[in-house]
Design a protein that fits this description.
By secondary structure, the protein is α/β, with parallel strands linked by helices. 30% of the residues lie in helices and 24% in strands. Strands 8-20-19-18-17-14-9-12-13 form a 9-stranded mixed β-sheet, with helices on both faces. Strands 2-1-3-4-5 form a 5-stranded parallel β-sheet, sandwiched between helices. A two-stranded antiparallel ribbon has the order 6-7. Strand 10 and strand 11 form a beta hairpin. The protein starts with a strand and ends in a 10-residue tail after the last helix.
Amino acid sequence: MRVVLGVSGGIAAYKAALLLRLFTEGGHEVTVVPTEAALHFVGEATWSALSGRPVATQVWSSVHEVPHVRLGQEADLVVVAPATADLLSRAAHGRADDLLTNTLLTARCPVLMAPAMHTEMWSHPATVANVAVLRERGVSVLDPAAGRLTGTDTGPGRLPEPEEIFAAAIALAGGAPSQDTAYESAAEPDQNQPDQNQPNQDPQTLQGRHVVVSAGGTREPLDPVRFLGNRSSGKQGYALAQVAASRGARVTLISANSALPVPSGVDVVEVETALDLQDAVRDASADHADVVVMAAAVADFRPRDYLEAKIKKSHDPGEEHSAPTIELVRNPDILAGLVADRGAAPSPLIVGFAAETGDASGDVLSHARAKLARKGCDLLVANEVGRDVTFGKDDTLVHLLRPDTDEARTVGPASKVSVAGAVWDEVAHLLRDRTPVGGDG
């Protein structure tokens, strides 16, 4: 993929060097276009060395190649990081006073901007209006992170981490698979329909939709220091939330015990137990949700009794091998409950996840098909799990199953961001003629 990386003049320009490395290590061809101010923070030699390509800095350099037009025309993706308040203003007003703004005017590919500035500048009505204009024109503008800024200041305005910008950029470009990504299907493609095994090239396929995503793993307390839990890190759910936001959705992320950074532009509700998660998902779904994705690993059981004091082991020699007996009760089936609550209504569209292991009675796919039939959801994402498989890892392999076909679409092994893109492609296909934007409420 041919990427133009624009860098404007802010202290966060040093982070763009890390972003550049992510693109080049991913096999992408990157041309860096820094503004004159950006070169005061990071020099041309750094950009050239990291990209392995000449740096484009002036409209008047290599005039015979018409760089102010060619760069934008030939790019598959334009990313500006950091995007200062000045750059956002010039882009919103169609200025063409340097090579970067010329490139933005000629680009007909997806454009992603990652703002970075002081809190007062980000919240100023002029900046708010400029961001709104750019978003209305189809530019994806990330919300800045909150944290330490220049000097002793803190607050919203910090450049998102390079990994987050990179993931959002790849998702915006259509989730283009890297070399380690595979898309397979047993079905012969219909020549008259879009190829559902390829990433969606519309960067705003979820524009105006409200999606609810659960992530992480629930914990069921036993006493003040112990709980029953699982190995889920929340990475897949967070990737789903991040990609959905980059495609224009309003995202509510129900996060169960995950330490991951919150994706930009995503509303987070933190929960602990399965019952907490059930209440949070129902509340968020009632807010005109178009899609609910249950990616969290929810405990099937919880201790019947919670003990107010820590369980002590016995020091009596006659009981040194004894252990307490813990009685468990079933947690509610949240996914099946969502389907039952929806009834015959067309929305929300419901996506389930099945973390499966094969056993003597069947393989992962057979167990997943049985679960799809039991749950009644619209799409099931099945993946193999284990001590060293999927949980906490950065890549995975999943199978996408729908109730209207026996075929399974296999995605991966691939990054969890790429898997998220494939899931949202499938959801966009299911939504296309199903519900109006904003749900049925």
